[in-house]
Amino acid sequence: MQYSNADRTYNEEIANKIIARIASGEYVRDACKAEGMEASTIYSWKKYRPDFTARFEVALEEKADILIKKGFEILSHPLDDDVVDAGKSMRMCNNARVNRARYLAEKYFWWAAKCDKNLSDKDIELAQLIKHVSFLESEIKKNGK
Questions:
Q1: Share of the chain above pLDDT 70, in %
Q2: How many Å apart are CA 8 and CA 39, to the nearest integer?
Q3: Distance separating alpha carbons of residues 140 and 13, to the nearest angstrom
Q4: Is the pLDDT of residue 104 over 50?
């Protein structure tokens, strides 16, 4: 039986730590670096070790959930500026901040779709649209318009 480099370098303890880091939202490269490994080693393990591959895929799905939550969090927070007009403090929307939030949220959704192959761009777009519409409705009610 021939052994691959993945078999010679595989370490269950390090693998568990890297899987945990990825599942908590870290990028693969950062998780590997923190454990003193190159990302290429992980991809080698993924290629030749089905047991590791299954856990790696689950970790990516968990990471995708975290990324989606971060995207929704960005869209959900009020992105208003306080403005004083005629002695009254009122909240006004700042378009630059809204656009930046939308851009950042879309980045998180895109990365989530790359991590979890079960997510489609359509699922994320629909979820984002629903969340954004809810946010706008709450802003309209809050401002009485």
A1: 61
A2: 16
A3: 52
A4: yes
What CA–CA distance (Å, rounded) separates 32 from 41? Answer: 9
CA distance 42 to 19: 10
Contact indicator for 32, 43 with CB cutoff of 8 Å: no
* Cα-based distances in Å from 8 to 2, 11, 12, 48: 11, 9, 12, 11
Domains in the chain: boundaries: 1-48, 63-145
In which residue are the tokens 């809810």 written? 134
The single residue listed with the structure tokens 């927070």 is 77
- Condensed to tens digits (0 to 9), the pLDDT of residues 33-62 reads 999 988 998 989 998 899 999 999 999 999
| DSSP secondary structure letters along the chain | ----HHHHH--HHHHHHHHHHHHTT--HHHHHHHTT--HHHHHHHHHH-HHHHHHHHHHHHHHHHHHHHHHHHHHHS--EEEEEETTEEEEEE-HHHHHHHHHHHHHHHHHHHHH-TT--HHHHHHHHHHHHHHHHHHHHHHHT-
> How confident is the model at residue 73, as a pLDDT?
80
